[in-house]
Design brief:
Strand order of the largest sheet: 5-4-1-6-9-10-12-13
Protein name: Phosphopantothenoylcysteine decarboxylase
CATH class: Alpha Beta
Bound molecules: cytidine-5'-triphosphate, calcium ion
CATH architecture: 3-Layer(aba) Sandwich
Largest sheet: 8 strands, mixed
Pfam families: DFP
InterPro entries: CoaB-like_sf, DNA/pantothenate-metab_flavo_C
Organism: Hymenobacter sedentarius
Number of helices: 5
Number of domains: 1
Oligomer: single chain
Structural class: alpha/beta
Domain DNA/pantothenate metabolism flavoprotein C-terminal: 2-209
Shape: globular
CATH superfamily: CoaB-like
């Protein structure tokens, strides 16, 4: 089995020394890569800038990228041959419209940046998804969480969507623990306990594998 995993943030350059980024550390995505490899899968881990080292497992190939466009190119290159797609990356929705070739100098009291929309990696790949391929997305919502996650699942052709909780202390960006809820297209909901990201990853992987090979 071959798994394509996106992880970490993306950095969108503004000038040679600055970028727009986000607080994703890559921990959840890297834990998923390790958990899939532990089950014997071959993993292509397309990672945005993360301070985590490349996972040591020989089953994991780590491809380092910076921008959403680079992440899309790297993911597209392996998507057709992957059986499972997991989109754990926190992809920047927008990037600066112009990348200055020289460092932007301080001038007026205000500075307005023009941003343009980035490619939706999961949404675009979803359009070429084959019926036997299995896709998993992530979402973090602050209002109408279940409805918004359900809607994203449909729009991006996900088989499962993992909803990150914002309500629980110890969950989310930078923490070693996470609390998630998993939804499927039929509206079935699985609530995970607050636990280490490694345990969340193992639980998600066994849930995904069970969906791939349903017991009669
Ligand atoms: N995603 C992606 N490419 C993007 C944006 C998001 O692949 N340019 C993926 C994420 O990795 C995640 C899922 O899509 O698995 C949902 O991401 P999210 O940011 O919640 O969805 P958006 O469609 O960007 O909606 P919004 O940020 O407005 O809630
Ligand atoms: Ca987004």
């Amino acid at each position: 089995m071959h798994v394509l995993l996106t992880a970490g943030p993306t950095y969108e350059p503004l000038d040679p020394v600055r970028f727009l980024g986000n607080r994703s550390t890559g921990k959840m995505g890297y834990a998923l890569a390790e958990a899939f490899a532990a089950q014997g899968a071959e993993v292509t881990l397309v990672s945005g800038p993360s301070s985590l080292p490349d996972p040591a497992s020989p089953r994991i190939r780590t491809v380092r990228v910076e921008t959403a466009a680079e992440m899309f190119a790297a993911a597209s290159a392996v998507a057709a041959t992957a059986d499972v797609w997991v989109f754990a990356a926190a992809v920047a929705d927008y990037r600066p419209a112009h990348v200055a070739s020289e460092k932007i100098k301080k001038s007026g009291e205000t500075l307005t940046l023009e941003l343009v929309k980035n490619v939706d990696i999961a949404g675009t790949l979803g359009q070429s998804k084959r019926p036997e391929q299995f896709a998993v997305g992530f979402a973090l919502e602050t209002t109408n969480e279940l409805a918004h996650a359900q809607d994203k699942l449909r729009r991006k052709q996900f088989d499962l969507i993992v909803l990150n909780s914002l309500r629980d202390a110890g969950a989310g960006f930078g923490h070693d623990t996470n609390k998630v809820t998993v939804l499927d297209a039929a509206g079935q909901i699985v609530n995970f306990e607050l636990q280490s990201k490694a345990d969340v990853a193992r639980g998600l992987v066994s849930l995904i594998l069970a969906r791939l090979t349903p017991t009669p």
